[in-house]
What we know:
single chain, mainly beta, Methylamine Dehydrogenase, Chain H, Immunoglobulin-like, 4-stranded antiparallel beta sheet, 2 helices, 3% helix, globular
Amino acid sequence: MKKNLLFLLIVLFSTIFAQNWEKKLTQSNQPINDVFFLNENIGWAGGSTGTLLKTSDAGNTWETVTLPIVGSVYSIYFLNEQVGWVGLSSDILLSTTDGGANWSQQAISSIGGSIFSIYFSDEHTGWALTSSSSVGEVWHTTDGANWTRGFQNTGEIEDMSFSSPNHGICVGGGSGKLDIYYTSDGLTWTKATNPTLPVGMYTRTDIRGVTMVNDNFAFAVGWGSVAVGYQPSILIKSTDGGATWQLMQQSSENAAVVNMYCVDFKDEQNGVAFGGGAYEGTVGLRTIDGGTTWFQIDPPFGFTGKTMSLIADQIIIAGSGGGIAKSSDFGDNWELLTKVPSLTPYIFKFIDENTAFAAGYNGLVLKTSDSGENWTASYSSVNMVCPTINDLDFVDENIGFLAKRNRQVCKTSDGGNTWDAIIPDTSATSFYNNGISFVNENFGCVVGRAESGISLMYLTDDGGNTWEEKIATFPDELNRVKFFDVNKGIVIGDASISYTTENGGENWTPSTIINLPSIYAGTDFEEIHFYNENLGILASDCLLKTLDGGKTWEYVEIPNLADNLVDCVMFNENTWVVAGDDFVYRTNDSGANWEDITFSPEIDATSLWQISKDGKGHIWLAGSSSSMYKSVAIVSIEDIRLVADEFYLSQNYPNPFNPNTIISFSIPESQNNSNCKLVVYNILGKEIKTLINQQLNSGFHQIDFDADEISSGVYFYQLTINNLIQTKKMMLIK
């Protein structure tokens, strides 16, 4: 038994982790550009890289429809479940008469744009809006094959709507422009009389979405912004088929100040519109008086609502990050339909052996309660805003805190199911909360910036009910904070800021930096990780270590460092792992030697952002597009002992191999003296060799597999003990 354990430790510590990663999570959808529903149950959603999804149960589940070419889907229109059209980039229109099993392809225009909108009154008669950033065109067909251009606009046209075959409107514009055209015969298009806008209020006036409720009544929405001055979302109305338009003024207490992208009405009185932004998240407006007045509704999501479907009281909205959501009661209550929206993770932490949180852009929070096997997604929308999350901290499985941009700090008492703001948000984009640390339910610290280059710190000793604010206490903005107890703590920030405190943040002492090469002088300090209150590492453009809780930092050389480090983690005194944008390095001797453990065909994220460790000793990587990767092997001695009593099949070593490799596994006490079967299969599932088929005691075991008599290729080995089964892949290269 001791011999087996010793061998396993040697294998796990000497293994180079090439190809030893499992991809555990990725985003469910690409960003969604259009949704179209025939009725409350049957609908389609289209987005980037050829994404076309279909649902038959009101969006609860989606199936992928395969398209013959890869291109972003911008528009969808179906006459029935069999006959439909999809508009793509490069002016390509696809049509189907068998529900998407087969597609015909044609190019509508040659302006190098995208088909933003489609309308067909029957299988042969239709209109297509194709547009680039500088030219917009509407085309018409009466046979579904030959197209005639109705008009061309010198500027982008972004949306089109028809109430009947003869009556349509298209809208667009750009910086300083507002372009609207209408038709009353389906053939000729006339430029509309634009609405009168307040002089000097708008830096842009483009219209993003339009709907024709009937042949006379139409509504359109567009530009809005608070980042470049107070510019309420443009909401305009026509009662003469689009010939003339009137701006609908919003009351200050209900005004939306974001880009609005889509609008629809279920009758002449009741309508909704959606848009959003990075600070506000999804913004919804509703009217019950024909668009004269609007009030905000609160879809609790962080994605920007780019498109919608409205049938009776059912609203489907979709947009950035692949987010799709539904309301069945005209916007009063909402359900997130996308299982895993796209996340750029600015923070990723295991808070105990089973529970981890990843959070970041658009206020999205991903949570696992079973060591990463399953994840749930939710948006931390509070007070109708959903700023990006820069850091989080939990004091137990229920009580946790979020540090967000736009100054907001949120608290949960139910494990992240609901959040409350304990520091309110501000629309001022200069405020960033970058780091947060709580040592118990009451004492905590938040750090960030009040504006560029100006530090910001909040301290609380009553769980966030009251705060002490410190502005410009440090020479630059702050990025991370760590308190070990109510007295001892450390902050780091831009321009090589590192300060420690011994009295709960009342006074701070600058740290000493040792042996830092001049090339890194003044570098921004981004991330810290502590093994205990004395031993820690700091990641920036380089790596530093401390043995005294951050009072002194010493430069640690990493040969051939490819780029700046984005995160770091310590498994014990000697074993550290650091990550950059597209690499992962590990040391087993406190930084004296390093190995690159990055390469794996499983790691396909465009950027790696965060690393963490679970309770069993596995490395976890969090990357772009909600990508989560778990190391197959275990990293530290302490954590290996945690799984000694578990059912565990290790990755073979070496892998690839020729012709011998070691397979190690553990049998839990509950399966002591059970029959154990270890079998090798080829890629077709044919059994190649039975390595073990006998009763074994609980504990660690290993076997040498000699593949001298089989050919090169991919093989699988499967361990079975009663109803417990695990399978791994290995590669033989001769």
